[in-house]
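### Sample
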Amino acid sequence: MNELILAIESSCDETSVAVIQNGETILSNIVASQIKSHQRFGGVVPEVASRHHVEQITICIEDALTEAKVVPEDLTAVAVTYGPGLVGALLIGLSAAKAFAWAHDLPLLPVNHMAGHIYAARFVKPLVFPLMALLVSGGHTELVYMVEDGSFEIIGETRDDAAGEAYDKVGRVLGLPYPSGKEIDRLAHIGQDTYHFPRAMIHEDNYDFSFSGLKSAFINHVHNAEQRGETLVPNDLAASFQASVVDVLVAKTIRACQSFPVKQLIVAGGVAANQGLREALETAMLDYPEIELLIPPLRLCGDNAAMIGAYAHIALQKQRIGSLDLNADPSVSFMHSQN
Ligand code: KG4
Ligand code: ZN
């Protein structure tokens, strides 16, 4: 078999195009990041993102094909993220994918961005079902139970902010550039959990999360200290914040793994790059040797098209082919078994 999928991702602030062979080998994975353009605004500006995608998309497609040493005639299908994400950003990738598929008479495979994040783990090892996935990104925090390829059941999710969003908001208070997750993670390793922020919902018998209370507690603490003229230690603030996020994520994930007959635990999304979270889960999972912990390498945790190509392989097997009138779906969620 030599299945070659051209995959396109443009849901947020990275334009990315990859060529994936047989759903498991990355022949190329071009990622054009726009972070520098958004930093001065403290977050992603949708109109700026769309404009960058327009400028980058054809270059990325050409680079991905060249690096993979593949010509359009070799390809089996074109895959594209259709949601969730910023509608204007998604539409750029979608239009490029549709035009490419039409011009080269290739099937079009619509991919849910969050399914892509989970399938980034496929580049580490084959997935074994049933499995649990902890999906932690800038827009999502959810526990997803999968009994087979292409079947997603959200068993718990955040009731307010996503974990990555909390990192970015707290980073702003600390005066860090956007996105701040990586830098807070670095500072947290130097500091100590001295401020003991709340661990919201940690003892509740469910799989849901809440991070807005932690964010408020953090901001109030910093403002009160400022008013009193006290100096706080940024490294300890970062460590205390991170300890709270990680404790809750780990506690809920372990509870989910105890309650469902899972063989693997996948950690996915931008926040899966967090060293504190990775280490805490590695330690916690030592008590569950029958469950294999699978975390994608750092370069595949953030948004990229390789992960979209990995899931597209499954979409093709299941013949979940899109039509050329496919539209972006900015707030699509996993219901049971869909793209
Ligand atoms: O998955 P992703 O690249 O984009 C979305 O689909 O949202 O996730 C981006 C998020 C940002 O909020 C960023 O601050 C966070 O992932 N992030 C981290 C780390 N690296 C990136 N959060 C905590 N620790 C990190 N090392
Ligand atoms: Zn993402």
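The first strand starts at residue 4 and ends at 9. This sample (tRNA N6-adenosine threonylcarbamoyltransferase) is used throughout the tutorial notebook.
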